[in-house]
Amino acid sequence: MANVTPLGKIAVEKHLIPAYRSTYPTPIYLPNCSITNRPVFIYRGVFPPSTNASAIESHLTQVGVVAPQWRYTMYKATHFHSNTHEVLCIASGRAKLCLGGEENPGRIEPEVKKGDVLILPAGVAHRLLSEVDGFEMVGSYPPDTKDWDMCFGDGDRESIDGRIKRVRWFEGDPVYGESGPVLDPYLSIV
Predict the structure, then answer these.
(1) Which one of 104, 117, 119, 190 is CB 3.0 to 4.6 Å from 41, fit for a cystine?
(2) Is residue 184 part of a domain?
(3) What is the total count of domains within the chain?
(4) Cα–Cα distance for residue pair 43/141, rounded to 1 Å
(5) Could you read off the pLDDT of 136-162 as tens digits, one per residue?
(6) Which residues does the UniProt record annotate as the domain Cupin type-2 (predicted)?
(7) Which domain holds residue 105?
(8) Which residues in the chain show pLDDT less than 70?
């Protein structure tokens, strides 16, 4: 299990990103946080600089809330997942991301670096803007997720919303286990 920075010593960002809809030039629908009423979380500096991808995977596996599935960068095309939440641990390098859709006035464009963790609720659009220093992430999903879908904003809104509504929230924090920011009972925005 990797050494992680104690919860009280990390910065945790929470961003509630609104849905984005456009009809011109083509119809686009990015639900973002509007269906789950859960924010995007960015945990800063969770894993110390000496932590490699294998140690991150071992840590996540031992905590057991998510299962590591891949190591890669982030796609440059805006996409989201309607059937699962996603946990992205930055294993190397740094990058600038776009969360929420590049035309969405409520988007955020965080810079992330090795040691940071992003928790993206189902429906949150994301894409890579730029990367340096060999940017790589460990991508993880709840253990019962057999396959995650790739949505690009052009699907049937009703079926997308229905799939997102069926995704259960985490029963533990993906990094910290029995306690942690994703378990805060006051996070649901009604």
Answers:
(1) 119
(2) no
(3) 1
(4) 17
(5) 999 999 998 888 999 999 989 999 999
(6) 78-130
(7) 7-166
(8) 1, 185-190
